[in-house]
Amino acid sequence: MRTTGTVLTLALLFAAAPAPAQKDAPFRPGKAADYPSHQTIGPVKIAAVKYESDSETKPIFGGKLNPNEFGVLPVLLIIDNNGDDTLLLDRVQVLYQLAGGRNSVEPTDPKELAYLTGVRRPRQAGAGGVGVPIPLPRKKNPMAAVELDTRAWGAKSVLKGESVHGFVYFQTRHQRNAILYVSGIREASTGKELFFAEVPLDPATPE
């Protein structure tokens, strides 16, 4: 018998095999200052990054989900605190604002996303009569992906020298030159509210 050789060969094969990729690897974006379109308010830098394409969204939200297919635009909000005081974020308000301030869209609570059914599509012509509905097994709503909740914005404060981030979700399609309107950031020591920020979502167009 050549048991020893067989065992050794199998051991070498297993050792050479690549380790499986982690399904829920930590999401670590850069700081707000790393993004060219960030805005500065005193010691604070704020960046907003829209996620639209499959290549942008699917690796972040479980590997298969693009929320835009369900009418939801994820926007990554990043806040850097470069000052000497802790900043309070528990009253922060975030709006998706169309160009020129014409209209604004409020964010959707991440826990409500699982109940969205996506964009309604018209019934195709030639599909026949209405007939009797046949009960079919219900599939899990892709918008119930746990990553939508775990990666959502939830910061209540940010210490000096630190950076916080999270996704904010809007039931809209992205429109060119829209901005993220951010207000309600306060200094912990004084309670004073900082000036609001209008953060671009599109890269600057060269003149």
Task: Write a structural description.
It is a single chain. The protein has 207 residues and is an alpha+beta fold. It has a single domain (29-114, 141-200), classed as Immunoglobulin-like (Sandwich). The protein contains three helices and eleven strands. The protein has helices at 3-16, 54-57, 146-150, and strands at 39-41, 44-50, 73-81, 87-88, 93-97, 104-105, 157-158, 163-170, 179-183, 186-187, 197-200. The strands form three sheets. Strands 1-2-3-8 form a four-stranded antiparallel beta sheet, with no helix packed on it. It has a four-stranded antiparallel beta sheet with strand order 6-5-9-11, with no helix packed on it. A three-stranded antiparallel beta sheet has the order 7-4-10, with no helix packed on it. A hairpin with a 6-residue loop joins strand 5 (93-97) and strand 6. The longest helix is centred in the first third of the chain and has 14 residues, at 3-16.
Order of secondary-structure elements: HEEHEEEEHEEEEE
Helix amount: 10-25%
Q: How confident is the prediction overall: mean pLDDT? A: 82
The secondary-structure class comes to: alpha+beta
Shape: globular
Instruction: Write down the domain tally.
Output: 1
How far do the termini sit from each other?
78 Å
**Low-confidence spans:** 6-22, 120-137
Short description:
The protein has 207 residues and is α+β, with helices and mostly antiparallel strands. Helices cover 11% and strands 24% of the residues. A four-stranded antiparallel beta sheet has the order 1-2-3-8, with no helix packed on it. The protein has a four-stranded antiparallel beta sheet with strand order 6-5-9-11, with no helix packed on it. A three-stranded antiparallel beta sheet has the order 7-4-10, with no helix packed on it.
